[in-house]
Here is the input.
Amino acid sequence: MEEPIRRRQLVSLIAPMYNEEEVIGVFFSTIDSTLKDVDVDYEIICVNDGSTDSTLDILKSYIEQNNRIKIIDLSRNHGKELALTAGLDYASGDAAIPIDCDLQDPPEVIIEMIKKWQEGYQVVLAKRIDRTSDSWLKRWTSSLFYKLIDNISDIHIPANVGDFRLLDRVALEVIKTYRERTRFMKGLFASLGFKETTIEYIRAPRAAGETKWNYWKLYKLALEGIISLTSLPLKIWSYIGAGVAISGFIYGVYLIVKTLVFGVDSPGYASLMVVLLFMSGLILLCLGVIGEYLSRLFVEIKARPLYIVMETVGFDESSNDS
Here is the structure.
């Protein structure tokens, strides 16, 4: 009796791309040379996130040479979180690995991920132990964010672990059920659970081109992470309000006692203005926090598609829902 032919495992590499024409060739050649001897099949799902340069044309030229490459062309720039979501939705592998095409996350680490996966781990995290390729300000703000989110959220997000990780098909199917429109993928990944392990690596400089992340975008992403993972910024205003009310009561008692003992004092314009400005600022800040949550509810209840696909290239069928 003939033994059944064993199907090789398939790993889906997911690479969101926005104006990455300078690095595409290096990315593909590095991936191919790194994974050529690995005992798995792999596909490279490139998500063109509304690039305005020649990224899409270059991708289409490479797909003629390499049938592992597949392209999802989004109708506009949706942002990395939604571009990554599109790649995960279209991944057909037994495991999926999000990876940046700038090669700051070395493809060599993929080999270690696959080994851990084949040992039975369903989620393999990649932790950056050396980030000297990043500026000191970026490292400091990143460390501050992870400490803050770890203290206020019920979900633990491992420090210095980005989107670069391996997700088994079981974990991938769960993450595909998360359809919120304002997304913080690191938080969604961290909420999965499953049997996981961590490998460490040194973050490299970009292979080519320039980063598309500035500090304003990083700030907005951090804010998205905080608001999507915890309601503490809303709840904390109850405690702040109670504290201010108690302080006001104590101060009122002090004024009554002072008046009874020393008589009526002349009113103070400066102290009155300080109290008014302080309370007005506090109220506006509270309204701003509430507005952040309401704006996200406004986006969610419209229930629009997460992303719009212009075309797909290299897929057998394009029946995926966005």
Notes: Strands lie at 10-17, 41-48, 69-74, 95-98, 123-130, 161-168, 196-202, 309-313.
